[in-house]
Amino acid sequence: IPEGATVAGPIVVAGGNLTVNGTIEGTAIAIAGDVIIASSGNVTGDAIAAFGDVRNSGTVAGATRSLTGTF
Question: Which of 11, 13, 61, 71 suits 46 as a labelling partner, its CA being 20 to 30 A distant?
């Protein structure tokens, strides 16, 4: 999500990273990848990474969850 852009969530990426430089109005989800929230990034809902990590340098209004395991 580019800096200055606002998108309605939920936003889901499978098999790669979700990088947030702008705003997601809702939840950010990465499956088999990371949710990367830059210092300019804003997520109004939760940030969830399944089989990945949440790296937060910005703002997440909801919960931040990293779910690990094997698949």
Answer: 71
